[in-house]
Amino acid sequence: TVTFTNIYETPKTSIKVTKEWYDASGQPAADPEIKTIKFQVYQLAEGEAEGTLYIPEGQSESPVYEIHYSNGQWEEILVDKLPKYADPILKTGEYRYYVVETEPSSGFKTAYKCGEGEEGEAVDAAAKDDTQTVVIVNREATISVTKKFVNKYGEEVIPDENTSINFKIYGKTAYGNPELTSGSITYANGEWSTFNYKLPTTKDNNPILSYSVEETSPTNYAVSYLVNGEPISDDNPITSGVDQTVTIVNAERVPED
């Protein structure tokens, strides 16, 4: 007696994952300070806005994968044996997969893209197979300091040509408020210059809890500070890891009655 056994192999897919790292000028970092990054894979079902952590059959936890930088480039790894369909018999409900960096690099903003697509949120970079590479993108984040004058009515005032102001940037730690850097900006050719700076996350090995900018040039104007156009506050702080514009605002003082 000859017995034939048919074994149905459920359809599988795979995705490729790599890394891109850029400095503050937007150029690929020639020697990134971190040379290993970790990520996990999320499974996205048809019609769903968000995915869930992918846990392989027979395992209790979602694997953590690593990508390494060596010989001047980031490696590309293959994550394979991923279920292709929610219903493997009818081959319906095709899954897509995206990745999330598990330990984002401090002082850098993280984005994701699929193939040559635009950078965005992780779920926006979901891929269905290894014809598209999922890219984890790190860009050095900076704050840009600029300036404006306003009159007592809140209307912007054009300063004299070559007007300059000075300021300092501080970081608050558990042991004080050390100065991180100082700078100046100038009004010339119809606009204020900007001062770009990457915020450190530690000072003298102490974690920095928050940041502040303080104008040091004496003026007869009241001084306030905006972060991305809104007043600085606990809900809108200066923070590392994201691009922000800090505007030093000098407002004409309203005489007291």
Task: Please tell me about this protein's structure.
The protein is mainly β and 257 residues long. The protein is 0% helix and 49% strand. The protein is elongated and about 105 Å long. 19% of the residues are buried.
Tell me briefly what this model is.
The chain has 257 residues and is mainly beta. It has strands at 12-22, 36-44, 52-53, 65-70, 73-74, 77-83, 85-87, 92-94, 96-101, 108-114, 133-140, 143-150, 156-157, 164-172, 179-188, 191-192, 195-197, 202-203, 206-207, 210-215, 221-227, 230-231, 244-252.
Low-confidence runs of at least 5 consecutive residues = none
Q: H/E series, N to C? A: EEEEEEEEEEEEEEEEEEEEEEE
Principal-axes geometry comes out as: elongated
Strand content: over 45%
Oligomer: single chain
Q: Tell me the number of helical segments per DSSP (H or I, 4 or more residues long).
A: 0
Mean pLDDT: 89
Distance between the termini: 110 Å
Which structural class do the helices and strands define? mainly beta
* Total number of beta strands: 23
Largest sheet: 6 strands, mixed
**What is the alpha-carbon Rg in Å?**
26 Å
Approximate helicity band? under 10%
